[in-house]
Amino acid sequence: MNSRATQLLKLSFMIGTVADGLVAINWFLIAFGVTVPNFLCGFNGSGMDYQFAMYIAAIFMAGWAVILFWGWLKPHERKGLLFITAALLLASIMFEVLFFQNILQGSGFFIGIILRLMLMTKFFISYFYSRSHYV
């Protein structure tokens, strides 16, 4: 087993766990009425409908953080989770640009895209590096 590949995978899983955990906390705060911008896009919504949607999203984001932590425990066996996560990050960027760019503008929107691109790149690199260096 290549220790460098293992370290790269474990680092990616931990970065993903922390990032998704922070986003889940951010979305739970929004769901419970705290006025903070959405980490991923800088959007500030309002109303109970928005809060309820953020509550549901926060539950799923927290679940994905747990799944990525689970991947950290056995990184080579579960490296496919990084590929899936990177693909979902790419899809989220594409859908926002195609369908929501009229409400998602400004620095928060661009910072969110840059952060997701960085995570996506890290996850894809870790996944493909580990595939080619796993003994």
Principal-axis shape equals globular
The fraction of residues assigned to DSSP E strands is under 5%
- Report the structural category: mainly alpha
Total strand segments: 0
Percent of residues in helices: over 70%
Question: What series of H and E elements makes up the topology?
Answer: HHHH
Low-confidence stretches: none
Number of domains: 1
Determine Rg (CA atoms, Å): 16 Å
Main sheet attributes: strand count, strand direction, barrel closure: none
Number of helices: 4
Mean pLDDT: 91
The separation of the N and C termini measures: 5 Å
Note down, in words, how this protein is organized.
- The protein has helices at residues 3-31, 47-73, 80-99, 107-133.
- It is 76% helix and 0% strand.
- The relative contact order is 0.19.
- It is mainly alpha-helical.
- The chain has one domain (3-133).
- The chain contains four helices and no strands.
- α3 packs antiparallel against α4.
List the defining traits of the structure above:
135 residues, globular
Provide the fold topology.
Elements: H1 3-31, H2 47-73, H3 80-99, H4 107-133
Helix pairs in contact: 1-2, 1-4, 3-4
